[in-house]
Design a protein that fits this description.
By secondary structure, the chain is mainly α. It has helices spanning about 5-15, 25-40, 50, 55-75, 85-95, 100-120, 125-130, 130-140, 145-175, 190-195, 200-215. The protein contains eleven helices and no strands.
Length: about 220
Amino acid sequence: MSDLLQEYKAYYSTRAERFAGNEKYKHSYEAEKAVSDAMQSCSALEEFKEKLGDKNERCAVALTKDHAIMDEAHFEKHQEIVRILGPQRILEQVDSCKTALDVTNLITDLLNKNSIEISMDEAHREFIYDWFQIDNYIMYKNAVVPDQYKSRLEGWCNEIVQSMQRGVEGAEKNNHEWEAGWRLIPEKNLEYRHRRLLPFSDEHIQEQIQLYKTLVNR
């Protein structure tokens, strides 16, 4: 047996064993083990091409599945109901891929689609970004000041409202290019993936949302 064949056998055995016993990479281990077994059965290096078949391509599929399963579990744990769509779709379709290039193209297409969905979902955080302005509006609106300052505070309130309205209108105009008819829904921020960003009580957040909707006409 040639030294080169021995080296190849050692290489493919090591490639498979790096995943051995790791439940997170069980598909990768099975696929890599199949490649290694094919190599170990060769008595001459020339035999490997025929015995390999599409086993190398299946390694790409298997690794993609393992990564998608981990991503899916992570997003499920954190209630990321939009981000989880990417790995879920990959898991539904990756087994149909015949080549590593097919896998790459599939991942690119599905994650690009999901990236748009994520952007559209997180655009509802315009309310979160405007939180400080809402607080300023409340402060200026309820401030007890001498009469000569009231018009100034009223002007500041109007500027805040106009600024928030421009922000909402700009977001809706921009997002329409990616999702026809997209419209800001402030209540989305009560869902966990957005709610976790707000260190306030549910009652206070709901109060802010109701005021915000009145101010920006949504």
